[in-house]
Write a structure and sequence with these properties.
The chain is α/β, with parallel strands linked by helices. 41% of the residues lie in helices and 16% in strands. A 7-stranded mixed sheet has the order 1-7-6-5-4-2-3, with helices on both faces. The protein has a 4-stranded antiparallel sheet with strand order 8-9-11-10. α10 packs across α11. The protein is globular, with a radius of gyration of 22 Å. The two termini are 41 Å apart.
């Protein structure tokens, strides 16, 4: 309904002057989310930082890469800049680095749980420095796409701080889970972060597209992206108390995305969203326990959130057969992936109407297909 109203209003939010409500509601809901997700209070708009809604986490990460490049290029040749992320990070980090003009991209080895290895990161950074290159950007992931692995944000941030890098966190999927205080240990170290993105359109029940990008200090962002031709100089936008969000991302035009997020927050409330997230986690843990107890199956990775990753012990053919049987049923749909030269099945639990009985029915089908 919020998306319908937003589209029907047809607000153009590139300037405060073209859409005051569009701008003000975005500021309010993103400041609400700072408090709800327990991220640093300085990321609120009334502090040095602030938030902006992007189309996707890919756009948010690309924006962070652009800002990091602009900041580092003041004292270094852009051709010498290096970006780093986990070998299990979303491919959008590598693509964003390419689009932003980085010539050097390092995919860092992971540990046994598929989180980035900070020792390997430090070694890669030192090798690049010895080769005359300049470390500029590092991305931690909280909830990787393949297995929802969690990078050690604090350890990565300490490496980044020692070497003057911009530290970005991609929590596109798992960021919503931080509305539950008991899960915030997964992103310990946010005071060492320059930017952070998560997608309400993934697990916060908001229609696509709606990706939040926060920065700890908005000045580098505005320095990199602010351009104001004469035709975009209405009087109100020249005052210090007004935000023009066109200067907070690459596009000029922007839709009223904040309205549908406002609808969700006002409809579910913090209590409602926490209730659903905790239910999803309980169901995912139940399914994980079934997999661990079945000698035919192997758990591929831990289950910190709502994704259960497993494979058949007999190999790829048996694993693929399980996925095919599930998808043929017409009742469920799963996706497959590959890690460590082995295929596996991914079961994502996060839909608002999913109940325990649905997960149990899925398990019955897995059991029959294995």
């Amino acid at each position: 309904l919020g998306d319908l109203v937003s589209t029907g209003l047809g607000q153009q939010g590139m300037l405060w002057a073209t859409g005051p409500a569009c701008t003000e509601i975005e500021t309010v809901v993103l400041d609400w989310l700072v408090d709800l997700l327990g991220v640093p209070a300085a990321w609120r708009t009334d502090g040095p930082g602030g938030g902006v809604i992007q189309m996707s986490a890919s756009d948010s990460t690309h924006t962070a890469l652009v800002v990091a490049r602009h900041r580092a290029s003041v004292a270094a040749d852009p051709a010498d800049l290096v970006a780093y992320t986990s070998a299990q990070a979303h491919w959008s980090v590598e693509k964003g680095a390419r689009v932003a003009g980085y010539r050097h991209m390092r995919l860092i080895d992971v540990d046994g749980g598929y989180g980035m290895d900070p020792v390997a990161l430090e070694a890669a950074v030192n090798a690049d420095i010895a080769a005359g290159l300049i470390p500029a950007f590092v991305c931690s992931t909280v909830g990787t796409t393949a297995t929802t692995a969690v990078d050690p944000v604090r350890a990565v941030g300490e490496v980044g701080r020692r070497h003057g890098m911009w530290h970005h966190v991609d929590a596109a999927y798992a960021g919503t889970a931080m509305i539950c205080p008991e899960l915030r240990h997964h992103q310990d170290g946010l005071e060492l972060v320059h930017s952070y993105t998560f997608n309400p359109h993934k697990w916060m029940f908001t229609n696509f597209d709606c990706s939040v990008l926060w920065v700890a200090d908005r000045r580098p962002l505005l320095d990199a992206l602010s351009m104001t031709p004469s035709f975009l100089r209405p009087g109100a936008a020249d005052t210090a108390g007004v935000i023009d969000y066109r200067n907070w991302h690459v596009p000029l035009g922007r839709r009223f995305r904040a309205l549908k997020l406002w609808f969700v927050l006002r409809s579910y409330g913090a209590t409602g969203i926490r209730h659903h997230v905790r239910q999803h986690l309980e169901m995912a843990q139940w399914l994980t326990a079934q997999v661990e107890a079945d000698q035919r199956l192997e758990l591929v990775a831990p289950t910190p959130f709502g994704l259960v990753s497993f494979r058949h012990g007999s190999g790829d053919a048996a694993t693929d057969a399980i996925a095919a049987a599930i998808n043929r049923s017409g009742r469920f749909h799963v996706t497959s992936s590959r890690i460590d030269e082995s295929n596996f099945v991914r079961v994502a639990i996060g839909q608002t109407t999913t109940e325990q009985r649905h997960v149990e029915a899925l398990w019955d089908l897995v059991n029959q297909s294995a």
